[in-house]
Amino acid sequence: MSATATVNMPGVSETGLSSKEVSQRMESGQSNAVKTSTSRSVKDIVRANVFTLFNGLIFAAMVMVLLTGSWKDSVFGFVIIINTGIGIVTELKAKRTLDKLSILVASDFLVRRDGKNVEVPHNEIVLGDLLWIRSGEQIPADGQIVETWGLELDESMLTGESRTVRHKVGEQVYSGATAVSGMALVKVNAVGSHSYAATLTAQAKVYKKTVSDLNKGINTILKFMTFLVVPLCVLLILSQVHAVGGWNHAIATGEWRGAVVSAVAGVVGMIPEGLVLLTSLNFAVAAMRLARHNTLVQELESVETLARVDALNLDKTGTITDGVIAFNRMIMLDSAADADARRTATQALYDCCNEEQPNGTGKAVLAGLQSQGYKPAPVAERVPFSSARKWSAVVKFDGVWTMGAPEVILSALDGDYADVLSRVNDYANDGNRVLLVARSLPQSAASTARSSEGTEAADSPRLDSHAKPVALVLCAEQIRSDAEQTLAWFREQGVRCRVISGDSPVTVGAIARKVRLTGDRTPVSMDARKLPDDVNELARVLENVDVLGRVLPNQKKAIVEALHAQGHVVAMTGDGVNDALAIKEADLGIAMGNAAPATKAVAQVVLVDSKFSHLPDVVARGRQVMANMERVASLFLVKTVYSALISLGVVLTQIPYPYLPRHITYIGALTIGMPAFILALAPNTRRYIPGFLKRVVKFALPGGIATALSVLAAAWVLPNIMGWNVMANDADLAAQRATSAIILFVMGVFVLARVAQPLNSWRGALVAVFAAAGVIGAFIPFVAQFFALMIPTGATLLATAIALVSAAVIFALCLWLVPLAGHAVASVLRRHGFAV
């Protein structure tokens, strides 16, 4: 058992389980332990990186080449093994980082054992434990209430009903519900997989393969490759056997080996082997980089969502402000009130805030009044504060005292209190959090404490319409020093920020002005109680609103839904249980490290140190991954396109394959593989827009077609010009393949330069370095011999130069003509009713 800490709580008669009973139940499996993880298991990581379709195809191709005895042409297989190893090591490192970080945000729970209250981890709660449920906590195991101090639960995650429910002694409560006010002592009667917690935790914490635009694009490429590679490989072998004189001659002379090697050259070229590796590698690296800034990514693939965010809903408390609230002063509404009246009202305010688990404002008021010498006084009955009601009340000998949001309380009272509301707005305009204290006479106490029917006292508390406003309470929050700078970054990046809070819209608006939420423009504030219920109408209203106050938990969720209806990708920050529904509904949920367990459970990202200033780095990291993956995918797909077209040309014209597998290994490493790793990790803040596959294909087709035409044209024309007999003379075939390899390399450099644009920075140097490396390598004897590279001389040099000039012209023409042809085809298809 982990170390426990003794905690002071209300006195109860029950002693709870003994240490021996706890040990017995732990051994018998009656604990709350469930299998959860913030990332994939080691087994899953190894399996995902090793057993892929691409690796299967490449392994099969490598075995085929090894069977021919040409081991140099099988080196591409070892490159894939190295790449896979890099992927496994990187993801394992990310897993260790994330698992360590997730411990920092794990919550402990308070149980009563051996007559003492001790804190234990979620997994060490056992059947029969006496469990304390405190405000802000998500219930970790099912149980029956033994004692209650105004416990009020949000069961929306279980029932979908947003209305909070008050529970009594003897009633059953279920894991997954969240305490919004009060507290209770519960006897646990279901743990582990037998409770709601198991399902909820599994859904919230397990690694999930998100169906994303990037994944769908890559999966489409995979499916295409599956249908293309196998039949093309068979056709290539048949064509190469035919090129050497048929099966009998190929088997008799051993030239079948060359046919197989040539076929594999085409297959290997079509496989974008590094694309899947780089995708998972990028997600893992992004997660590790964010972890160094105390940001926990609970779903690695949520980085794609980070890249697409264009609407950010911010909770004021704990995000823009540091959550530290200080009591300022209490102002009596009756200027003639004497000292006794002030003391009575102040004591009532203290008693209203003196709950078992007061919220931040309540704690601030208590701390301020305690410093003035105020202490708890007897209370006959209490209605604890609720974020849904926005008020609390106590019944005392001199009447019912209510404390809460001025607009809510005043709207329920008889009479005209416009002057009071005006004063509230004046104070709120200065950035104060304003509370109202109201009093009902003793004979009206039942109106507040009970429902209109007078039967369900604790279930439906109501305000007394005959109550009178007594005083205003002023509190203030401290604005985070990094808030203004962070919001300015989001404005520059085209992300629309809105502040959504349960506080007064006037107060929140004043804070929004101070942090320049909308730059030089004054932010537009609105009371959420005036929002329409219809989603489409709500969406239209939100387009012109920057600050929303008095927002209820279910309204926060509705706001996210309305933004979705307008096509926005929404991120939502929060720390309270009232934010959990909206965070779960948002495309990207971001919880603060000090957030309630329920909020952290449903968020994809947790800011462990609760610093709002980490958000730009979170969004920028996502944009970097997605924008760079688009570059990298384009680079890999060009190779797939030209390899497929060259293979098709070889099959149709029955010529020897124009280059060897080792050529494509050398060229691919220098113009695709190594540059792709660098480009994938480069800075990039471009906002991601859906349509990944369409853009990648649009980019890859011109370069792929140009490269294929250049290589095939050289393979068809050069033998006639140079007098090479490539069918019968091995030296002539080697010369042609070396020339084709040069053309392929130069075209690869052209494509790399196009992908790496703009070239007026380090990207230009990147292209120059790898181009130089390819040329220098050809002059190194060992490298040239191993990869079958030849430096052309004499007439061959002239022919190669002409072929390269022709290739450059073809490349330029394809960049112009292919998009025009694509637009023409798309136009024809649209005219015939096809969606393009």
UniProtKB/TrEMBL annotation:
The keyword Transmembrane helix applies. Residues 110-203 form the P-type ATPase A domain. Its main location: membrane. It is found in: Cell membrane. Keywords: Membrane, Translocase, Transmembrane, Transmembrane helix. It is a multi-pass membrane protein. It comes from the Bacteria. The chain crosses the membrane at residues 50-69, 75-92, 224-247, 259-285, 632-652, 664-684, 696-718, 738-756, 768-791, 797-821. PROSITE patterns: ATPASE_E1_E2. Residues 15-35 have a biased composition (Polar residues). Residues 1-35 are annotated as: Disordered. One of its GO terms (cellular component) is plasma membrane. This is Cation-translocating P-type ATPase. It comes from Bifidobacterium imperatoris. Signal peptide: none annotated. The keyword Transmembrane helix applies. One of its GO terms (molecular function) is ATP hydrolysis activity. CDD domains: P-type_ATPase. It holds the Pfam family E1-E2_ATPase.
